[in-house]
Amino acid sequence: MARGFESKSVADQQEASQTAPTRGDMIPAAQKTRALARADLEQRLRSATSAGHREMLERALKAIDEQAGKS
After folding, report:
1. CA 32 – CA 42 distance, rounded (Å)
2. Whole-number Å distance between alpha carbons of 30 and 19
3. Do the beta carbons of residue 45 and residue 61 sit within 8 Å?
4. Would you call 52 helix, strand, or coil by DSSP?
5. Domain residues of the chain, as ranges?
6. How far apart are CA 58 and CA 66, in angstroms?
7. Rounded Cα distance, 64 and 45, in Å
8. Could you tell me which residues come within 8 angstroms of residue 57 by beta carbon, excluding any fewer than 6 positions away?
9. DSSP 71
């Protein structure tokens, strides 16, 4: 009886591995997320009045751009 459950589990794992998103499928989602984050930072930078806050936002933009270069 345990053997039947074990076989079912293996079959489920094989099926899941075939239908699971691969790293290649996730790259566009990461790029979209990065683009949205960048757009948000740019908007916040336009309305920032404090020099320290502007500097922090500019560093965050630079970090996003550097991360995009690595991808």
Report:
1. 15
2. 19
3. yes
4. helix
5. 29-71
6. 12
7. 14
8. 41, 44, 45, 48
9. -
Contacts of 27 (CB under 8 A, 6+ apart): 71
Per-residue pLDDT tens over the stretch 40-63: 999 999 999 999 999 999 999 999
**How far is the first Cα of the chain from the last one, in angstroms, to the nearest whole number?**
48
Tens-place pLDDT, residues 20-44: 566 666 678 888 999 999 999 999 9
State how far the Cα of 15 lies from the Cα of 17, in Å rounded to an integer: 5
Residue with tokens 């566009």: 28
Residue with token string 């922090």:
56
pTM for the structure as a whole: 0.59
Q: 8: number of CA atoms within 13 Å, CB side?
A: 5
